[in-house]
Structures are given as C-alpha cells and as structure tokens.
Amino acid sequence: MGETRKAKNRKRLLWLLGALAVLAAAYFLIGSLGGEEETQEEALIAAVLDTDAVSAISCGWSGGSYTLLKSEDQWLAEGEESFPLDPGYPEAMLEAAAEVTAERLVAETAAELSQYGLTEPSVTMGFTLDGGDTVTYLLGDYNSAAQAYYFQVSGEEAVWLVDSSLYSAFAKELQDMSLTADSFVDADPSQVAAFTVETQGSLLEFAYYENGNPELYTAEYLWSVRLDGGAWQAADSSLVESYLDNLTGLTPTGSAPLPQTEAEAAAYGLDSPYGRVLFQLTDGSSVSFTVGGRDDSGFDYYAQREGADALDLLYYTNIEDYFGQSPDDFAPEALFLISLDTVDSMEVTIEQAVYEITLDRLNEEGLACFLNGQSLSYEDFTGFFYGLTILEQEGVTEDAISEESVMEVVFRRNTDSFSEMILRLAPRDQNFYQVDFNGRTDQLVNKKYVDSLVEYLAELAG
User: In a 10 Å sphere around its CB, with 0-12 CB exposed, 13-18 middle and 19+ buried, how is residue 15 labelled?
Assistant: First the structure.
C-alpha cells in the first residue's frame, strides 16, 4: 500500500527543516570565521618601529636612566663600555617596541596630558635611528581598572592604553642587565686540594691529605686547618666541605665595570680588601677572588675574580658569614681519634692508682689485652678505649687549666711521629673537666661521663 499524502507531506517537512538547520549552521560558522578575521583586522596598533634601523636605546624612569649603543653587532652601555651587558636585554626591548598593540584608544586628541601622567612620564623610551632621526615612546600612569598603562608616541596626539610589556622590558637599572657567570668561582669543590681565606689581619689555611696530614697525630682526618701559619689542627671533613661548597657557590647579585685607575680601585675598596680567597686545584692551577668594600646600597660587596672582565657584587651577609672563621669552627666533635692499630700500651693514672694496659698483637688468637699483667677481655678493653676516643667537646674556656689531674692517660704508639701522647683531664667545675691534649687546654668535657669511665676501669682492675 502506498504512503498517504499526509505521510509524504510530513517527510517533506522534516527534510526541509533538516536542510534549514544545515544552512543555519553553515551561516553561523562562516559568520564566526568572518568575525574572527574582522577582529584580527581591527587589532589596534599604537606604534610601529623599524628596529633594524635602531642604533641607540635610551630610557629614563624612577629607577634611573641608561643609554645603550649599538657598535657593529654588539650593544654597549654608554659611558661604561666595559660593563658586561647581556645582549638579551636590548633585544627584548626592541621586540617589545617593534609593534605596540593597544588595549584601546583613549583619545585621538588629548587636551590635558597630565590626567594620564604623560606630562611627567613614568618611563621615557628613546630610539635613535641610523639616519639620526629619533622616536620617543612615553608611558604615563598605570590604570589599575584596565590593568594597563597610558601610552603616547611623542609628537603624536593619540593616547592609548597598553599592557605592561614595555614597562617590563625597559624599567630596569643597568646593573640588572649584566651578563654574569653561571658559576662565580670556576672551581669544582671536589678538585680543590687546598685553599686559603684571608681576612684583614688573619690567614686561615686548609689542606687535604688523602692519607692524613703527617704533621697530625692521626690519619683519621683528611682535612687540616691552621691560623696564621701556626700548628696544623684536625678539621671535620663535613664542615670543611660544606664551607668550601659555600665559597665556590657564591652567586653574584650584579656587576660593575673593572676599575681602570688606582682611584677607581680605591672607590671599590680594592686598595684595602675586605678579604681574599685562593683555591689550589689538584691539577696544579689556582683560582682566586678578592672582596673589596660595600657598594652605595650597603647590601653588596664588590668582588674581583682573577681574570674576569668585570667586578661582581656579592650579598653582604654571605661575605661576612664566610670570612673571619677560626680553626675551632671546624673542630671535630670527638676530642681526639687515636686509632687502636697504632697503640701498643697505655698507662692510666687516676689519683694514686696506676693502671698498665698492654696489647699483644702476635698472639695466635688475635689481639691479647692485659691490665696490670692480668688478662683482660677484648670487649672490656675496647669498652674503655673507645669510651675515651668518643669524648666530645661540650664547651671551651680561656681559663688556665688546673695542675691537679682527675685522670691522665699516656698512649705509647708504634708510629714514627707522635709515638707518645698524653691526655690529661683536670677538674673544672661541677659539670665539666678541662682537657689537656696535643697542645690544647681550652676544651671542656662532660664530668659525669668521665667519672663513669673512671669507675669502669676501677671495676676492671678489681
């Protein structure tokens, strides 16, 4: 049976509605594309600059002023030609100035420029072209509602609102545009064999010995330190290496031109330096830098690296924290580290009692220990021996040490140097004993801990 007329009409109506929907969608799409093209065509261009023809850039703002000159393919700071200018900054300025896109046109002719801050601009940007012509851009007040600056090209009447691209590119101090080294000190801390830190009136020396400093009584410490050419002292490796990392990891905050005269050097404080650091590397080469005086801000010190083409600025707290140290700042926590392998015998005096401890390494069963001629277990002996060697400094004093002794230990060793060493503990107060060891008498140790060692040895002797 054929379709009824009503059914055919319904189908025809549905087909027409579908076709209309397709046409409507196509029209909307075409209209949208056309609208986008129209929007792009209506982008507001406030200024265009032939940046290839720019031979000089000048800027004045509240933070100061500067002029950058193009010499062949290099940009230089006028009046400070030795300043290490990062070429990325003038390139960014020209990129921002090449085509200035406006948010909107404020006025085609502005009668009162002062209402936009353009009579006293916040930033004035000048461009000198190859032919001698100049172009000047002006940024006025910031419109917080529009989040944009008022902008005008000098000599033109139109006032525009532009985003912050120009301000960000130009509103800089010259020192902010320096090309500084990625690493202030070109020295790998792991390749430093020795280094010195010289401060006004003192010289602190550090030396690394792979097998221990032969001038020390122990090979347990690989780093040694001394002050003003005095006796070497053992230094805690972790403390020295942390200090070394800090010195080699100093980061410049800016730069300044190298002084060309003695007067300029004096102005930077380099005629009477705050300090100097010298690194001796394992390959025989050296790296050094000298710290002069503070700059006008008071927050940075001038520093001159050996061979550098500019001065660096270093933050004052870093310099003052890293200079003026003493050997005590690197002292190990343990008062001494005498290796058991170097000890043949010990004589311990406590009040009137004398305890002789001898060691026999030729014994077939291993190390044999004796206390006053009687066999002593290895565990009991090492309990006392290591109890001594883990004594830690808990304070220092400038007072003279008492001649009275609480305990005195004489170590007789199988070494070519320091074959006999004496540890003496003297009474100090109710909390501490004062230590006399290896030429030092300023260290304090915990009284209760030493008393427990005294009791322990008395119990072993019976």
Answer: exposed
User: Given the DSSP bridges, would you call strands 202-208 and 192-199 parallel, antiparallel or unpaired?
Assistant: antiparallel
Q: Burial, 82: exposed, middle or buried (Cβ in 10 Å; 0-12, 13-18, 19+)? A: middle
What is the layout of strands, in order, in the sheet containing 407-413?
374-376, 368-371, 353-360, 343-350, 407-413, 420-427, 432-437, 440-446, 395-396
State the pLDDT at residue 18. Answer: 54
Q: Which of 293, 315, 295 is nearest to 249 (CA)?
A: 315
pLDDT at 31 over 60: no
Residues 189, 248 contacting (CB under 8 angstroms): yes
- The burial class, CB within 10 Å (0-12 / 13-18 / 19+), for 366 is exposed
Structure-block tokens of residue 179: 């090309």
Q: Quick check: 450 and 458 in contact, CB under 8 A?
A: no
pLDDT at 34: 45
Cβ proximity of 444 and 433 under 8 Å: yes
Whether the Cβ atoms of residue 430 and residue 362 lie closer than 8 Å to each other: no
Q: How confident is the model at residue 21 (pLDDT cuts 50, 70, 90)?
A: low
- Amino acid 183: pLDDT: 58
| Distance separating alpha carbons of residues 88 and 437, to the nearest angstrom | 60
CA separation for the pair 426, 432 (Å, rounded)? 9
Q: What is the DSSP string of 111-127?
A: S-GGGGT-SS-SEEEEE
Contacts of 457 (CB under 8 A, 6+ apart): 348, 350, 355, 384
- Residue written as token pair 């007789």: 412
Give the pLDDT band of residue 180 (cuts 50, 70, 90). Answer: low
Helix (H) or strand (E) holding 155: none
Nearest residue to 150 (alpha-carbon basis) of 137, 139, 135: 139
144 or 380, which is more confident? 380
- Residue pair 434/448 in contact (Cβ under 8 Å)? The answer is no
% of the chain with per-residue pLDDT over 70: 89
Which residue in the block uniquely carries the two structure tokens 């924290």? 321
pTM of the predicted protein model: 0.56
